[in-house]
Every structure is written in C-alpha cells, then in structure tokens.
Amino acid sequence: MSHDFSMRVYYEDTDLAGIVYYANYLKFIERARTEWVRELGIDQVQLKADAGIVFAVRRLEADYKQPACFDDVLTVQTEVSKSTGARLILTQTIHRSGTTLFKAEVTLVALTADGRPARLPADVRRTLTT
C-alpha cells in the first residue's frame, strides 16, 4: 500500500539560497504520515483517548539525494515496509517531477501515554497494513 501527499515548498522552508533546510524534510515526512493515517480513518486523538496509544518515531535513517528549492511541488510517498504488533517500518520518499530527492526509513512504535511500549489494537494494525 502506498500513500501520496503533495505539497509546495514555501520560503519559510528554505535557507538564504532558496534550498530546503535539511531538517525540514523531517517535517515534510511527518506531515505526510499524519495525513496518511487521517485518510485511513484513524483519529490519533481518539486512539489516545480510547486506547491510551500514541505513535513515536523510534528510529530514522535518511538519505538526501538532491535539493528541493523554493516553490517546488513535491510528492511525499509513504509505504509500509514491515509491521509487528507494536512497530511499523515505513519507507518515505520525496519526489519532484519523478526525481527522488530524499528517502527515509522510519520506525514507528506504539507507546502508552506514559511512554511504555504497547501493542497496536488489531483493527488499527490491519488498517495501517492493508
């Protein structure tokens, strides 16, 4: 399963040269993950209220391949690579007109509100991985 999120690079995302500041790629992939989960019908606020479960990034490995620039239209593609009862490994790629600019492998874990590891509810896990 794959999810695409389109966005435009704004001036605030760039440095003085008009190139996207490296840390902003992490913001872009976070936005894409949030919209992916939302479009699947998972309400993260409700998940926390009902099951006491939140998502957290456990690990991230990133490759910066080419720069994005002011006013570029980007697509962030999110795919599930692997899942377990309490962990999702995602591949997130940022493209501009078919050219890969950035690629990350992101490990998300489920945590209780007090920060302890938790299993994802079965229905949420199915929704995220089908």
As a whole number of angstroms, the C-alpha radius of gyration is: 16 Å
Terminal Cα separation, in Å? 7 Å
Q: Into how many domains do the coordinates divide?
A: 1
Helix share of residues?
10-25%
Query: What are the low-pLDDT stretches, counting only 5+ consecutive residues below 50?
Result: none
Number of strands: 5
What does the largest sheet look like? Answer: 5 strands, antiparallel
Shape: elongated
Sheet with most strands: strand arrangement: 1-3-4-5-2
Overall pLDDT level: 95
| Helix/sheet category | alpha+beta
Strand content: 35-45%
CATH-defined architecture: Roll
Helical stretch tally: 3
CATH superfamily: Hotdog Thioesterase
Give the CATH topology: Thiol Ester Dehydrase, Chain A
The SSE order reads EHHEEEEH
What is the highest CATH level, the class?
Answer: Alpha Beta
